[in-house]
Design brief:
This protein has a domain of 206 residues. It is built from eleven helices and four strands. It has a two-stranded antiparallel sheet.
Length: 297
């Protein structure tokens, strides 16, 4: 029983990271109806920026190094995403829907290969938190798991408050419902789109750092599998739905952990995760919290 609970806690830890990345996918889709496949490389960029900041600030005492790493990684990813949006997506705003999708794949390949040319093998991520186990009832929870869960939940709560309680959040929801109508009532749609990319990338950068802290290494292609799983989580919860992305990430991480506990080979966990995506697309393509909408004529 204790082993099962530990597996579930592992799943919640990974699921919270998937949820942060899934929010970037779902926010962009909610406004532009496009899948930003370059978001997985934003996740990777956050890890590398965090690594660089930790190397530079390693002489600082206490938690200052990791705090600076988060600030650098999150802001750097936000600025990078806005630049990508302006250069690769904005010119295709009125193009057929397939064009920005192809552009996103191209940007993903460019970013991945740019890092590959610099370093094509694993880099050890600095050990920031001590390897201690904290007893919680009959199970052991590591300090890094507590940090990941606490950070992820805090960021998701802040995002929910921003989207639902601020004027900018209301403007984002208005653009998601009807971009043309939002523009007619004076909402700066282009600025809101850039802000959406920025916020999604900030969360993705934070997820990249948390993922690196958990596994202890980074690589140029590290974003591909977590990015696809985060996309699966977004579809599972209901693509375009912010609470759905959070729910989908947690459910996918938990299901993956349970699958790992019962499957004979741990490598099958990826097959298990993407099998869930196929089943969702077949039986409930709009996701758990997705709403059925009328087709526009």
């Amino acid at each position: 029983m204790a082993n099962l609970i530990e597996q579930l806690l592992n799943g919640l830890t990974l699921g919270s990271i998937y949820a942060l990345v899934a929010l970037g996918y779902t926010m962009v889709y909610g406004i532009l109806l496009m899948i930003n496949f370059a978001h997985s490389e934003i996740f990777m960029a956050g890890a590398f920026l965090g690594w660089a900041a930790l190397i530079i600030t390693r002489s600082l005492p206490g938690p200052w190094g990791i705090l600076i790493a988060f600030v650098v990684g999150m802001l750097g990813c936000g600025i990078l995403a806005v630049g990508i949006e302006k250069a690769a997506y904005a010119p295709l705003r009125r193009a057929p829907r397939l064009a920005p999708l192809i552009s996103a794949i191209g940007v993903s390949i460019i970013l991945q290969n740019a890092v590959f040319l610099w370093r094509n093998d694993f880099l050890a991520f600095p050990l920031v938190f001590p390897q201690v186990q904290i007893p919680v009832g009959s199970v052991q929870l590591s300090l890094i798991q507590l940090v990941i869960l606490g950070t992820s939940v805090s960021l998701m709560i802040l995002l929910w408050l921003f989207v639902n309680k601020t004027r900018l959040g209301q403007a984002m929801r208005a653009c998601s419902q009807d971009r043309e109508a939002a523009e007619l009532v004076g909402i700066p749609v282009d600025r809101i789109i850039s802000m959406t990319f920025f916020i999604g990338a900030v969360l993705g950068g934070a997820a990249g750092i948390l993922f690196s802290l958990y596994y202890g290494s980074i690589k140029y292609n590290m974003g591909f599998v977590p990015g696809m799983k985060a996309f699966t989580a977004a579809v599972l919860g209901g693509i375009g739905n912010v609470p759905g992305a959070m729910l989908g990430g947690v459910l996918l991480g938990s299901a993956e952990a349970m699958g790992t506990a019962f499957l004979p080979e741990s490598d099958w966990k990826d097959v298990f995760a993407f099998g869930i995506l196929i089943l969702i697309l077949i039986f409930r393509p709009r996701g758990i919290l997705g709403e059925k909408t009328a087709d526009k004529v």
